[in-house]
Each structure stands twice: as C-alpha cells, then as structure tokens.
UniProtKB/TrEMBL annotation:
Belongs to the phosphatidyl serine synthase family. It holds the Pfam family PSS. GO terms for molecular function: L-serine-phosphatidylethanolamine phosphatidyltransferase activity. This is Phosphatidylserine synthase. The chain crosses the membrane at residues 31-50, 62-80, 92-112, 182-199, 211-230, 282-301, 313-330, 350-367, 379-400. GO terms for cellular component: endoplasmic reticulum membrane. It is an enzyme of class 2 (transferase). It comes from Anabas testudineus (Climbing perch). Residues 428-446 have a biased composition (Polar residues). GO terms for biological process: phosphatidylserine biosynthetic process. Residues 414-452 are annotated as: Disordered.
Length: 452
C-alpha cells in the first residue's frame, strides 16, 4: 500500500492513530486468555524443540523455577479473581496478586530451612549475598552545628542526607494514599519513631540523633509526604469522574488526556475509619496500626538476619511490592469493616498481605532469636506498659463503662418523666386520672370540649 504525505501533519496524525489503536487494546477489559495461552505454548515449544538445553544443573534449576513462576503468573493474570481496583487495567492488579502468592511461597520455603542454608540460599539469587555485613550507626555526634569542624560545621546534617531521605518522603506519600486518613498516618509515623527509640539496643541503625528522629523524619520527610498525600486525596475526591470511550472523544488532545486519566482511579471512596464509633472498628483500627508497624520493622530486621545491605535491589523490590499490593489490601480491609453484610469475608489481597507480614516476622524470630530476645531497658518497658494500660483503660471506659452509665442515666430520666406526665394538669384544671382509659383517651370533659 502506497501512502503519500503532503505535509508533516498527515504523518503525525497517522502515528497518533496507530498508537491510539494499540492503546485501545490496553484499555479493553478483555482478559485475552486465548492469546496468552497461544504465546505461552509457542514459548514452550521453542524451548523444547529448537533450543539446546545447557549442561549446567544450577543454571537449569534456576531457569526451571523462573519458568514455573512465569507460567503461574500467566495463569493468574488471565484467570484470577478481580479485586476492587480496575485502573489502569484489571490484569495489572491480578498480576500483583499472583506475585503476592509467589512471595509468600518463597517466604515459607525460607522459613523451613536452617539458618545457614537459608542465608546461603540467597547466593542463588545474588552471589554477593550470604556474607555478614556491618550495620551503619546513624547516631554518634548529634551536634547540628559542630564548631570543631571549621571547614564544614554542618557536616552532621549533610551526612544524614542520603538516598533514604527522598525514600522516606515518597514512602509516606504513598502510605497516605493507602490509608487516606491524616490522623492514622501521623500516629503510625510517630509510633515508629518510638519503636526505633525502644529497639536501638537490638539494631544499631535504629540509633539516630534526636533531630534526625523528630525533625528530619517526622516533620520534614514524613510530614511533608503526608501533607502532599492529603492534597492529592483532596484533588481525587473533588475530581469529576465521567469516563468516556477513547474513540468517542473527537480531538487528539482529549484522547491523550483520557489516556493519562487511565492511570487515575475509576471512582473514589473516601475512607472514614471512625475508630470510636464501636468496639469492632476500634479493635480493627488498632490491628491495622499494629500490622503497619510490624511490616515497617520487618524491613529492617529481614535485611539484618538475611545479611542483605540496605541498598540491595531486593530491599527495593520488596518496597515496590508493598506499594502495589498495600493499596488494594487497605481497600479490602476498609470494605470488610464498613460493610460486613455485603463483604462477608476478608479480601484475598488483604489476607495474603497479613500472612506475608506474619511469615516475615517468624523468619526473623527463627533466624536470630538472640537479637529479638535482648532485654529491653527497664524505663522503656515502663513506658510501653503505661501506654498499653492507658489504651486498655480508655477502651474499657469508652465502650463499656460509658455506655452503661449513659443507659443508667437514660433509664433514670424516663422514670422521672413518667410521674410528671401522669400529674400534668389537663385543660379543665383537673389532673389526669390514673385509669387506663384516661391514659389512652383523656377525660370525658376534654372529649366533649373537642367535639364542641
């Protein structure tokens, strides 16, 4: 076919039309099960008939495991159950659901190994692993302005400005989009700093300066991330959601804008946790905060017990994994809490994330029980016991003592109002008769007055 272009605009329109045609396939909700099955079969036929199998047992074992995982992912992307999210495409979230299953199975495999074999198994993933690494201590000299260093008196601040500063900001920005509540985000942020104070005798990198805890982390990185996240949530809640088919939009500018909005939510649900509304929601919110803090701690303890450096790509991949599955899990938890009659069971992604968090903690306990069982300083134990006692006391007062007191006052008020209603004078100056007929119909004089 010969196509003649008179000017550059014709070529530009053709390229735009072809790219939009390809993207329309992505916008479609079809699972393409037959297409994926055909491509998978062709790949397996090629490996079986056309490719020569290397004579390397370790290489073939790795390749077989990877191929098995890819086949499972292909099955899950096309056949797994859809979750609450549909943008940018349901297959994207089905893919991360299958990745969650694979990661949980990997954790179970590591849990059933000995400590030595489990650490050495990491060498199959990266030969640089399996070697004990020293932890970096962020404490030490905590002077903001060091007069002893004439060349750079603010060197302590610049030393703390590493790659984890933007990671803190981005992490809390995404967590705010997951939780969608300012108070819960701030409570988790502050509580994690208290956990670092409490556990710095176990992990050296928990030892930080006071200004690193409260100024750089809580106020600057975490606070700024939460603020930007709440602004994004406000924009998403006010944004009109009027979806239109790609080919129904007349202009190319509108089509490009529609493609960009494909990566925004299909609809918006505002999370109203209301933890003090009833005991069930209060315990659920406490459980969510506890699991969030445990998942945060697992990040540090896992790399400590499995001998992974903080900058290793596996640590980054784990964070990327939780970024993609955490939002779905939080939405499923909220639906299960807010409408238990319609959502009768916990969502699949939330179930898997909870299982992963617990399995990671069990790996930490098995691989290094000595670090976990190090005695906590006495004054820290006193602080935590005081906090737990205050939470228990408030729960007991709010959901038991307060309700009993209110019911007793309401019953007493009704008893006091009942005699007053019986003694209230009627229209002719007489008091109400205590008979049943008088209580229901009033006196005969009042009845005759109404008839007149």
């Amino acid at each position: 076919i010969h196509i003649h272009f008179n000017d550059f605009s014709s070529l530009q329109k053709l390229l735009m039309s072809s790219s939009l045609s390809l993207y329309s396939v992505f916008l479609s909700r079809r699972a393409h099960t037959v297409t994926v099955l055909f491509i998978l079969t062709c790949a397996l036929v090629y490996v079986t008939l056309l490719e020569e199998t290397p004579q390397d047992t370790a290489y073939n074992t790795k390749r077989g495991i990877v191929a098995s995982i890819l086949v499972f992912l292909c099955f899950g992307v096309t056949q797994a159950k859809d979750g609450p999210f549909t943008r940018p495409h349901p297959a994207y979230w089905r893919f991360w659901l299958c990745v969650t299953v694979v990661y949980e199975l990997f954790l179970i495999f590591i849990l059933f190994q000995t400590v030595h074999d489990g650490r050495q198994f990491m060498k199959y993933i990266d030969p640089k692993l399996g070697v004990p690494l020293p932890e970096r201590d962020y404490g030490g000299n905590c002077l903001i302005y060091d007069p002893g260093n004439t060349t750079d008196p603010f060197h302590n601040i610049w030393d703390k400005m590493d790659g984890f500063v933007p990671a803190h900001f981005l992490g809390w920005y995404i967590k705010t989009l997951m939780i969608r509540d300012w108070w819960m985000c701030m409570i988790i942020s502050v509580m994690f700093e208290f956990l670092e104070y409490s556990l710095e005798h176990q992990l050296p990198n928990f030892s930080e300066c006071w200004w690193d805890h409260w100024i750089m982390d809580v106020l600057v990185c975490n606070g700024l991330g939460i603020y930007c996240g709440m602004k994004t949530l406000a924009w998403l809640s006010m944004k009109p959601y009027q979806w239109q088919g790609l080919w129904n939009i007349p202009t190319y500018k509108g089509k490009i804008k529609r493609i960009a909005f494909q990566f925004t939510p299909y609809s918006w649900v505002k999370f109203e946790w209301k933890p003090a509304s009833n005991l069930r929601r209060w315990l659920a919110v406490l459980g969510i905060i506890f699991m969030f803090l445990l998942a945060e701690l697992n990040t540090f303890y896992l790399k400590f017990v499995l001998w992974m450096p903080p900058e290793h790509y596996l640590v980054l991949l784990r964070l990327v994994f939780f970024v993609n599955v955490g939002g779905v899990a939080m939405r499923e938890i909220y639906d299960f809490m807010d409408d238990p009659k319609f959502h009768k069971k916990l969502g699949q992604q939330a179930w898997l994330v909870a299982a992963i968090t617990v399995t990671e903690f069990l790996i930490v306990v098995k691989y290094d029980p000595n670090t976990i069982m190090l005695p906590i300083p006495f004054f820290i134990t006193q602080c935590w016991l005081l906090g737990i006692f205050l939470i228990f006391t408030w729960t007991l007062w709010r959901f038991f003592i307060r309700d009993i007191t209110l019911r007793y006052k309401e019953t007493r008020r009704r008893k006091q109002e009942a005699p007053a209603d019986r003694d209230r004078p009627l229209g002719n100056g007489n008091t109400a008769a205590p008979s049943g007929r008088s209580k229901l119909n009033g006196s005969s004089d009042t009845l005759r007055q109404r008839k007149a």
